[in-house]
Amino acid sequence: MPTTVLFTGFPGFLGSALLPRTLRRSPDAAAVALVQERWLDRARTTLARLEAAEPAIAGRTRLVVGDITQPGLGLDADETDALRAGPLEVFHLAAVYDLSVPADLAWSVNVDGTRHVVDFVRGADELVRLQYVSTCYVSGRYDGIFAEDDLALGQTFSNHYEHTKHEAERIVAKARDAGTPVTIYRPSVVVGDSRTGETQKYDGPYYALQLIARQGRVAVMPLPEDPSRVQFNLVPSDFVVDAIAALAPYPGALNRTVALANPAPLSVLEMCEAFAAHTDKKLRVVPVPSGLSKFSIDHLPGVGRLFKLPSSTLDYLTHPTVYDVTATTALLDEVGVRCPPFVEHVGAMVAFHREHPDVGSAAMV
Fold it and tell me: 3-state secondary structure string, the chain?
């Protein structure tokens, strides 16, 4: 019996990239994309574009209105029974990716939503695998080396996004330990495609790039503490897609947690220097305590408009965690996927930003 592949988070970036690749690897498989009512028109447009680009996958995807924040994913009994009746693979990609997200929304989508997905797959007659996208920042502000199998180490969290993704991963890990077949993927900060620089939103390191790019010949960059001692771990989006697409069917990834982070990340200072070099600027770093910067952005008139970044971003300029990706790198070697170093794709990142200044910072929720 052919496998049905259920996607949450379509038509977001990951779902739009992974759906055609998943159908491509199994010519008999069919996909079902769980879509909130408000995203249905966008989902139809995205699916039409994907099918036009790859006629071999046309007609193999159904768009179904649902909601992960509801028990049973908001599906009726007939749809539920149909999905659970045969071999089922689930890509749970839906989440709130926003550092400033309010607590109630973060818990509803990230935690309750993940619990509902796990409850749903437990009722499947034959679950092939639950592919769950988490984040490296389940680490919170752990001061030290955080390995792939680490999770609850008494860490504190910078925001509700980190905290709720941590709690959601605990739900998935508990299900895995109870026998649910799972692979957990933890991307670090994701930026544009390594070849084209294309991205759907400018956030995270793009705020630093924008601040540097809009200044004159000398770009003044206020940075906290010692930016040469803090790692900023970022990876291009195509690496994340390639890794998940390759590992999803791979037996060696079953019941593994994989940290899709850069094995050789730059420091905050090196990242800003690279942005300055690619925008033909001379970088001048001004030391400013993180607490003062956050207070100024949030409370002093004009400062927020000047820097054009949310204060929550500043926590990642002092992020104390180092991600150990030794096991993940070995696993990716087995499937032929490599994380390109930042120096290989920063040029494409900066060029895309220069040519597409109107891309926003909002993610699909």
Answer: CCCEEEEECCCCHHHHHHHHHHHHHCCCCEEEEEECHHHHHHHHHHHHHHHHHCHHHCCCEEEEECCCCCHHHHCCHHHHHHHHHCEEEEEECCCCCCCCCCHHHHHHHHHHHHHHHHHHHHCCCEEEEEEEECCHHHHCCCCEEECCCCCCCCCCCCCHHHHHHHHHHHHHHHHHHCCCCEEEEEECEEECCCCCCCCCCCCCHHHHHHHHHCCCCEEEEEECCCCCCCEECEEEHHHHHHHHHHHCCCHHHCCCEEEECCCCCEEHHHHHHHHHHHCCCEEEEEECCHHHHHHHHHHCCCHHHHHCCCHHHHHHHCCCEEECCHHHHHHHHHHCCCCCCHHHHHHHHHHHHHHCCCCCCCCCC
